[in-house]
């Protein structure tokens, strides 16, 4: 479904309400037609391209639910942040960013990105820096790099329209993703709060409910509190020393019946960040392959 947010800014709602493997896109009816992310709804994107044009796809970051349909547009320019561009240009860099290069999980990801999410390396024609002003014809956006989710995750602020696209700082009940190799809990929190402080009247995210009007300060705090709940559940589980396999199998992040390598990956990607933080604060040590909680 296509929904106007302003005269020249459209929201293309992702299939399945923008739940993974889909994500919402923006379409700017300006500057020859610019799509922001490419994982929403292929029919709607093709129709807009046909009727109004498509000069560029601006990628907020390199995740697969955002590049899902990008392979269908091999001749359209790709724009991205300086920090995330290398992962769109090289499959090896992408796998490294996911933290799976050279691990037992690499074959699963190679397969996933060959079949379900066809990854094609693309030359990034325009590299965007933090706070850069981007003109799309008569429409202007300020790029805001929000690290934590990915190192160069781009948000777009349209000051004249009062719209902020937060992409994967998505305010969902699931909570934040900070599991990429260069991702981090502290950075995610700082970015989330910085985005809430922009104070846009219309805040748009990539997943589930796309439009949040007015202040998102309270929603952002509730969203970031999921991080604390995950850590508290992990702390409870570590009342007995546990192996990595036991922590993964506990499904603290995803809950119950979620078998398979994708969820194994996601659990450890996030739990590993918590354990890193807890270890650096002296709350956890590793003994004989088990994570042991140090009592205060
Ligand atoms: Zn993402």
The percent range for helix content is 25-40%
Which CATH class of the largest domain?
Alpha Beta
Shape: globular
CATH H-level superfamily of the largest domain: Ribonuclease Z/Hydroxyacylglutathione hydrolase-like
Global mean pLDDT: 97
| Count of separate structural domains | 2
Between the first and last Cα atoms, what is the distance in angstroms?
A: 53 Å
- Derived from helix and strand composition plus strand pairing, the structural class reads alpha/beta
C-alpha Rg (nearest Å) = 19 Å
Q: What ligand molecules are bound, each kind once?
A: zinc ion
Order of helices and strands: EEHEEHEHEHHHEEEEEHEEHHHEE
Major sheet strand order: 1-2-3-4-5-6-7
- The CATH topology of the largest domain is given as Metallo-beta-lactamase, Chain A
Low-pLDDT segments: none
The overall strand count is 15
Total helical elements = 10
Percent of residues in β-strands: 15-25%
Largest sheet: 7 strands, mixed
Q: Would you identify the CATH architecture of the largest domain?
A: 4-Layer Sandwich
Report on this structure.
The structure is a single chain. By secondary structure, the chain is α/β, with parallel strands linked by helices. The protein has 2 domains: about 1-220, Metallo-beta-lactamase, Chain A; about 240-290, no CATH class. It is built from 10 helices and 15 strands. Strands 1-2-3-4-5-6-7 form a 7-stranded mixed beta sheet. The model has no long low-confidence stretch (mean pLDDT about 95). It binds zinc ion. Zinc ion (ZN) binds next to loops. Zinc ion binds near residues 61, 63, 149 and 168.
